């Protein structure tokens, strides 16, 4: 008994409950066969944990089993803990659904099908009607209509009789045909050293051997006469010449198979049963994914299906209008009548003074010219729904003005679109700024520019004089610094050393001068008169033409949050400092990367600026009490004359300057 092989480790993949059931059964058989049933509980637990495997042992360590007596542990307590861990929560409705949805595989046989049904019925709680349910399931699952008619025609059919009838039909069928899957592959037939290619038909019901192949075999065949008629796909009937028995070898596997010899085919075929015998196909146990057993699991697994508005937004507005103080005040004014003067209207309702004649109540909703007045508590949500498609300001305004109303609606829509990060990332490029021409030098070869270009795969050095526009083009053997310096020396030896050299990616950014003493007058040759003035006029005309479609952009301050134009859109960044070069800034991104960018590729971050702005031009503060006149309270330490000198409109409302002009003096003389 000591040589008995213990059960293999518990498999934690696939159907865990079924794996545990089989493993526990093997463990019990091993205990009985090895004589461990009468051993101590401690030893049985040790043997079990030794056999269960490494992964399951870790689960045991994490289960934290509460023993009835810590000094006298029992194996049944360990088994119970593993059963609870491996067995999912029972759902009778789901188990019965699985029972009735289970399909009968005719190739496996009726006995295996009944065994599978009994295992599934164990969790269905059928009780005394289990045999009746099994009988009905067998009758409903039979694909052979003749067999099903025979079962249905039998009165008071018991379960055991239904199984016997199916067994008899199965035995008769197995003697007449062989079954197989639908895919096809190529294998080799080996008979007496002769090789022939066979096509495996996993859905064919017989093995077929062409007459030409049979006659080409080196040994005589003992062909037997047969009355079997083969039916091909599509209904064509084939009468075989006979049946032969051959030894077939495929992948080191041999089997004695019967072949129907026919002249209607030119390729040998292996049927399903032959493929199974030669291990060309295998049955793979499918993994079953358990459906959600409880409502909470269903909601958690498919949470996206149950999320959303949950109801009509109009119903939400109607419910909010019943509790919103502003909406209730408008209803009272509409019912009791509006005062004759605006100053007599409560502050909360003053913004609606201009639309008082168009205001009415419809089914609990406050309406203005067929537009719903949205309560303040729902305005943010309505704006988010309005901007779901990320349309621009004009389209959003047109849509909003057609269906809803509240004071300051236009400003709120603009602020909402401006503060949308996704919209800012997809904004078009900035308008170009006015041209900044280079200053015209006083003489030739004082200011030159250089760059490297390629033509037909060969590099060239281009040097141009800013005064005469004279170009120098020199071919380079390569783009190394030594080759470029050699060409510069050759040019400087012919024309002299310039005051300023402007080159792309200049290393030191300084003026290159000769170390020989020389005066400016000596460097200035005699030139035609009025050339510099003509160049200046030409550059001015170019600038004037260019600036017709250009506009200056406001500068940025250090620390200001901006958007940087990239290939992926406008990404957030911050200004580090303004460089000495015009329109050039050092910026830093949220990831910590620093860049140098021109003002054209930067724009203000409206989303960040919107957080610091509060528009109160159209609507007063919501915390103003009804019936009270809003008065600006003076700040501590502020004198009365300064408070009274604040600019106001004719109606007495204080004018608050825009935040973007806070650094400028807007006082009129």
Description:
It is a single chain. The protein is an alpha+beta fold and 669 residues long. The chain has 6 domains: 16-86; 92-176; 184-277, Acid Proteases (Cathepsin D, subunit A, domain 1, Beta Barrel), CATH 2.40.70.10; 313-418, Endonuclease III, domain 1 (Orthogonal Bundle); 438-516, Nucleotidyltransferase, domain 5 (2-Layer Sandwich), CATH 3.30.420; 561-612, SH3 type barrels (Roll), CATH 2.30.30. The protein is 35% helix and 17% strand. The protein contains 23 helices and 21 strands. The chain has a 5-stranded antiparallel beta sheet with strand order 20-19-18-17-21. A hairpin with a 2-residue loop joins β6 (242-250) and β7. The radius of gyration is 46 Å and the shape is extended. The N and C termini lie far apart (114 Å).
């Amino acid at each position: 008994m000591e040589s008995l092989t213990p059960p293999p480790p518990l498999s934690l993949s696939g159907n865990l409950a079924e794996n545990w059931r089989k493993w526990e059964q093997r463990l019990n058989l091993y205990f009985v066969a090895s004589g461990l049933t009468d051993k101590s509980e401690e030893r049985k637990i040790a043997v079990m944990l030794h056999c269960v495997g490494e992964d399951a042992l870790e689960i045991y360590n994490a289960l934290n089993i509460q023993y009835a007596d810590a000094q006298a542990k029992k194996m049944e307590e360990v088994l119970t803990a593993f059963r609870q861990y491996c067995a999912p929560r029972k759902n009778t409705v789901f188990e019965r659904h699985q029972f009735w949805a289970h399909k009968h595989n005719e190739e496996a046989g009726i006995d295996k099908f009944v065994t599978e049904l009994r295992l599934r019925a164990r969790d269905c709680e059928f009780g005394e009607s289990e045999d009746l349910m099994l009988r009905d399931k067998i009758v409903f699952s039979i694909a052979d209509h003749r067999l099903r008619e025979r079962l249905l025609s039998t009165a008071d059919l018991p379960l055991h009789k239904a199984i016997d009838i199916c067994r008899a039909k199965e035995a008769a069928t197995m003697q007449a045909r062989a079954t197989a899957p639908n895919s096809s592959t190529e294998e080799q037939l080996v008979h007496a050293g002769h090789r022939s290619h066979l096509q495996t038909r996993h859905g064919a019901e017989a093995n077929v051997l062409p007459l030409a192949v049979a006659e080409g075999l080196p040994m005589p065949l003992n062909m037997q006469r047969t009355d079997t008629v083969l039916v091909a796909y599509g209904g064509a009937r084939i009468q075989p010449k006979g049946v032969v028995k051959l030894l077939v070898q495929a992948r080191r596997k041999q089997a004695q198979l019967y072949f129907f010899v026919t002249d209607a085919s030119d390729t040998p075929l292996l049927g399903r049963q032959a493929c199974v015998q030669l291990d060309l196909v295998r049955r793979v146990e499918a993994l079953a994914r358990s459906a959600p057993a409880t409502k909470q699991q269903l909601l958690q697994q498919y949470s996206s299906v149950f999320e959303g508005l949950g109801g009509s937004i109009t119903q939400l507005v109607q419910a909010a209008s019943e509790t919103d103080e502003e909406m209730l005040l408008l209803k009272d004014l509409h019912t009791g009548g509006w005062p004759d003067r605006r100053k007599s209207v409560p502050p909360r309702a003053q913004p609606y003074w201009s639309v008082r004649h168009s205001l009415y109540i419809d089914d609990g909703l406050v309406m203005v010219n067929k537009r719903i007045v949205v309560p303040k508590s729902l305005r943010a949500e309505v704006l988010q729904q309005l901007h779901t498609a990320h349309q621009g300001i004009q389209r959003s305004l047109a849509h909003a003005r057609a269906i809803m109303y509240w004071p300051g609606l236009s400003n709120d829509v603009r602020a909402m679109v401006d503060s949308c990060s996704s919209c800012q990332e997809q904004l078009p490029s900035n308008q170009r700024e006015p041209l900044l021409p280079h200053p015209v030098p006083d003489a030739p070869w004082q200011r030159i520019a250089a760059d490297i270009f390629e033509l037909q795969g060969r590099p060239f050095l281009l040097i141009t004089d800013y005064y005469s526009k004279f170009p120098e083009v020199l071919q380079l053997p390569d783009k190394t610094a030594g080759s470029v310096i050699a060409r510069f020396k050759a040019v400087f030896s012919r024309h002299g050393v310039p005051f300023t050299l402007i080159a792309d990616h200049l290393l030191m950014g300084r003026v290159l001068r000769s170390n020989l003493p020389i005066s400016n007058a000596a460097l200035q040759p005699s030139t035609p008169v009025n050339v510099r003035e003509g160049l200046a006029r030409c550059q001015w005309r170019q600038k004037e033409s260019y600036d017709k479609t250009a506009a200056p952009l406001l500068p940025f301050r250090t620390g200001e949050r901006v958007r940087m134009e990239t290939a992926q859109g406008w990404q957030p960044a911050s200004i580090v400092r303004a460089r000495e070069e015009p329109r050039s800034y050092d910026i830093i991104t949220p990831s910590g990367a620093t860049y140098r960018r021109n003002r054209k590729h930067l724009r203000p971050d409206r989303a960040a600026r919107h957080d610091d702005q509060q528009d109160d031009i159209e609507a007063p503060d919501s915390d103003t009490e009804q019936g009270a006149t809003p008065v600006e309270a003076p700040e501590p330490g502020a004198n009365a004359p300064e408070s009274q000198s604040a600019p106001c409109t004719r109606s007495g409302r204080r004018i608050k300057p825009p935040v973007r002009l806070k650094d400028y003096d807007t006082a009129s003389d």
